[in-house]
Amino acid sequence: MAAGADARIEARDGGAVLAVSGRLDTATAARLWPRAPDPAVTAFDLAGLESVDSAGAVLLLAIAPEAELRGGSEPVRAVIERTRKALAAAPPPGPPPPYHPISSIGRATVGRLRDMQAGIGFLGEAIVTTLRVLTKPRLLRWSDVLRHLDEVGTRAFPLTLLLGFLIGVILAYQSSIPLRRFGAEVFVPNLVGISLLRELGPLLAGVVLAGRTGSAFAAELGTMTVNEEVDALKVMGIDATAMLVLPRLVAATISMPVLALLMNLAGLAGMTLIMGTLGYPWAAVESQLQQWLTLKDLVGGLFKAACFGLVIAGIGCRAGLSAGRGPRAVGDAATAAVVGGIVAIVAMDGVFAVLFFRLGI
């Protein structure tokens, strides 16, 4: 018994009949649900039921999905029948499977292998498309390349200069503290200059590119994937890789050495400012930089920056094109692009460090 409705079991015609009367709405169904009858019900007596909504109909059908409807007004019977058809067409999800550690490890392993397979497929498709463009340059949309050069490079100049200047200031201050104990503050430009040109300049520029541009690539392409625009391009016979991916790869590869160079120059400017406050003129700083820095350091750092840009753009594009269809797809793609890009450039930087050490560069 609940306010607004009454439900009772009656034995009729050799079976259990559930007689319902009153108004069976959402609030009433919520109060009746914990006290739903256990016996098998073969029919519903709806003669006393004044009205019913979808929640009340679901309550009745949860008790006996195949029960016969007896009596009741036409609107009440229509609501119950429509609800029965809806539940049959789309049954509610079942309980989640129990947690099994071995099965979970297996599913995670299979998922990682599939992701690796998809990544290898994307890499192969990008290489094939690049070779096609080399033979047919008209396939590359140069207007898109220029637009992405502006987005990736020109608009990132202020942020890159600011971060580079601050990094130079921080490195100069922090390195001067231990070197002061030995009266070797004059070697601060050597330490900061080599660190920026060989490692920190390309690496920090790559982090800026991954956070600013890699996520933008993933979000843009992810939105196109969710809206099925990429599928529409494929249906029309347009190479989506040549149209969407290749211009971004070219723009990021060209822009990254420029961003790394700006990061280096801004860092050296910040270091020079701090050396001036410590009592060292520009002539002393210039002398140390010319003595210890070589063109090999600069070229090696710019080469790494170009590789970082290519990898970051590729990871961002792949994350966007492999986005799902749900409401969180674009956000997940952007997150995967940023995390994957940063992890990839750090791992690549370690590989380059070992390689340059072995080659004596």
TrEMBL record:
SUPFAM superfamilies xrefs: SpoIIaa-like
Residues of the STAS domain: 5-71
Domain of life: Bacteria
Transmembrane segments: 155-173, 258-282, 302-321, 333-357
Cellular component GO terms, alphabetical: ATP-binding cassette (ABC) transporter complex
Listed Gene3D superfamilies: STAS domain
A GO MF label: phospholipid transporter activity
UniProt KW keywords: Membrane, Transmembrane, Transmembrane helix
PANTHER family, per the entry: ABC TRANSPORTER PERMEASE, ABC TRANSPORTER PERMEASE PROTEIN-RELATED
Name of the protein in its database record: STAS domain-containing protein
Biological source species: Neoroseomonas oryzicola
